Amino acid sequence: MSNYLELIALVWFLICWLGYSEYSRRKANDRPCLSNTLDLYREDWMRVMLRRDNRISDASVVGNLERNGAFFASSCLLILAGIITALGYTQEVMEVFSTMPFGTLPSREIWEMRMVVLMVIFIYAFFKFTWSMRMYNFVSVLIGSAPLTTDTKASPAAREAFAKSAGSVCNLAGDAFNLGLRSYYYALAVVSWFIHPLVFMGASTLIVIVLYRREFRSTALKALRAGKVFEEPLPKSDTEKEAGKETQN
Length: 249
Hints:
It contains nine helices and no strands. By secondary structure, the protein is an all-alpha fold. It has one domain (about 10-20, about 35-50, about 55-225). It is elongated, with a radius of gyration of 25 Å. About 25% of the residues are buried.
């Protein structure tokens, strides 16, 4: 019965992870969230960048974003090294864990399955962070190749197309970083699995609630949305103004 509970907890965890990923991706198409709001700001960033000849500040910002991904990617490697080491000393680790008051000691197979799941999560996070780093590298190249303000050969349409293309690459890099960061949240839920499968299920649900609130209902989102005018009334034509005056009279 305990093995079935372990599998049920793992399936629930996968439903929470994959289900929320699909839900947030679909909702981002028709509902304000951090992802689609930052997409707009990144495109605006690229348009502003094209209006200045000195792009040192832009390159510096991209470098900082890339270093963030490098930090988390290197952290993933250190964590993976620790997990692999723990797998090599499974019996010793289980003996140490058995002395703790909050944990129930499962079979060796279940214990190793938990460690493998944790390892897979950090491998996934490592690939996401490194892909984010590489795409920010692409953004650096795009900034270096951006037409100058004195370049008369670049038409307004060409500049707008360039800004959208550079913004899209920057958005993809940000999305990859976001998915890698989510993996850390889900890894915390897996850590609770070592206490009890029911605690694991509760932690998985709690992680989804936290991610949802931060993505769709956070004060940060409200502040970001307040910085942009999304619906601005169009100026009335002279005929509409005259019609309005006649109606009032």
